[in-house]
Structures are given as structure tokens and as C-alpha cells.
Amino acid sequence: MPQHKYDAIVVGLGAVGAATTYQLARRGVRVLGIDRFAPPHDKGSTHGGTRITRLAIGEGAHLTPIGMRSHEIWRDIERETGEELLTQCGGLFISSPKKLAKTHVENFLETTIAAAEKFGIAHERLDAAAIRARFPQFAMRDDEYGYYEPSAGFVRPEACVAAQLELAEKDGAALYRGEIVQGCEVAADGVTVATDRGAYAADRVILAAGAWLPGLIDDKRASLFKVYRQVQFWFEATSDFASGPVFIWELPVGRLGIYGFPSLDGATMKVATERYDAPVSPDAVSREVSADEIAAMQALIAPYLPGVGACVRASTCLYTVTPDYGFIVDPLDVGERVVMVSACSGHGFKHSAALGEALAERATMGRSRLDLAPFRISRFAS
Questions:
Q1: Is 64 in contact with 211 (CB distance < 8 Å)?
Q2: Would the pTM count as exceeding 0.85?
Q3: Which residue, of 272, 291, 321, is where some domain finishes?
């Protein structure tokens, strides 16, 4: 029998789970948040010190209002907590007519520009000469070009999660860390969530378990998610990278793009790529980064980032990816007592604060100000 009854239970306290728990608690909802680890942690997708944020979204202009609202929420949380969460250092996104690499979707840069123009986001279109003059740390080819967005930058994922969970607890949320959810059962009068420690009842449940989400839903829906191991690298870097923008580069050679951040300590910088070689299990994935992986990354970036030196550390994270690299926000039952949400495919964190707010609005008012229709699972019906 359930040990306690809540208005809502949130399963998973990473990017979206923490945001949703915080937003529910501040609305006076009796909410329980459960996580198999002790967030913020380094076992899933929400870690690594920094995550790129941008307002004009190359994965689809429908995401831009969500990114814009997330920026507003993070600024509100900063004022309330005194924490530094969002740094708008500018973002440079580079491509070329001959590029082979792809950032999530086709026409990423063109869609980014179209979104900026549609929503009035300040930006510049730069040719190779202009980029060399302003950002000499990037070794450009003559046929490459870029988009520069002053409002882009990075957020600190661990700090964002910690701040939202702290505020949630202050507003009365119960947080159970180190507890594994095994499943949930829907009935006419609510939902029962079973864990390795007990059972809890709620009027509704939000599943935001990231890479562990497929294990909590039926096989047909779970087949839409694939989990991939990614590696983040930190390299020695010259002072040219100390004040530069975040960047995404669809490289002109090979099929791998790169992305990176300015140096936060004046001596090292984070650079990574995205690989989709083979799906992994979140419980069995290798957390070790090999010497061969480090050498391959050094060889990849050397022609483009000549001021980058030796690798000083590396860590893994997980991407949970859908077939179209989009998000899924969808009920599992007719009564919408259980909703699954996956801010996935490697570009979700920048939207997480506003997604949490939208989910809380939907749970308390039956609707959200943001349009969540593009994230329905029915888009994969064909």
C-alpha cells in the first residue's frame, strides 16, 4: 500500500525534473521528487560544468519561445538565490556550403537565422574574414561563414539543478534521493509509484528520468529512444579563448562537428563532439575515457583550434535521442495522469527551465502558456 499521498510525483531530478519540481512547489502543490542518485550528479546528462544556450534554435523555430522563457526564469532564480547560472558571452555558429557534418538536423544554420529573424533576436551574419578579424582563435577556411548571437552563452547545469531543488524544498517539496523507481500503476483515482524502498500515491506523475525513461514505459514508446554515450574534453588553451563566445562548428571535413566554450579559468577550455555509434545502457555504459578517444579528439580539433594544447581531463555523459532529435512531452494514459517528458537529443538543457514551468502549469491549470503540441508522440505515427 502507498506510504504517502501527494498531488504530484516527479520521477527524475535532472534538467526538466528539477525544474518541474521547483515550479510545482512554488505553486503550493504537494510534490514528491524522486531520483536514483543524488542530484546534481554525473551519471546522466545534466553535468559537465557548462551547457550551451542560444535563443534562435536551429532544431526548429518553435523552440525559440521556450529558450527565451528559460533565460527569464534563470535570471529570476539568480536574483532569488544569488547564484550565477546564466552567462551570455555570445555564440558563434559556423558552417559552409561544402560541410559534411550535421548538427542534429539538416539546415541547422539556416533555421537558426530564420528563427532569429522571426523573433527579432539580435544577430550578425559573418563571412570568414569578419570571423578571423573578431575571433582569431578560430582557424577559418575562406568559404566558411557564421552566425553570431550576442544573447547566446552558457548555463551551469549542476548549479541550475541545485538551485531549483533548494528552492523546491524551501517551498515544501519532498525530495527522495538514492531511490530507484521501478514502475507506476494508474487507477481511476490516481497513480501509485513503486520504488525499491516503498510505494507512493499521487494524483499525477511526471516521468523525467532521462536515459532511464525507456525502462519505465511500454516497449513501443521506449523504441523511440536511443541512449548514446558522449565524451566531454578539457584542453589546455591560450588566452585567446578566455573571453570568446561559445561555438558550434559544422566542420568542412568529415562528419563530426564540434562545440565548445570559453576558458572559465583562463588556462583550460571545454570542447566536445557528438557521436552516435551504438546505443548503450545507462547502467552498463563505460565511464572511462580511453587514450585513443583523447588522441582522436585532439586530431579532430587541431586544424581548427590551433591555440588548444594537451587534454587535461575528460568525462562522459548520456544523450537520450529520438528519431527526429526533438523532445517528447506526452501522456501515457487517457486521463493524462502520467506524462512522460524527455528534453532530449543533446540540446535540451537550454529549454529545461521553461519546460518545467509549462509542465507545472499543465498539471495545475490543465494547459500551459507555451505550446507543447509539437512534442506529442503522435508525430511518429507514420
A1: no
A2: yes
A3: 321
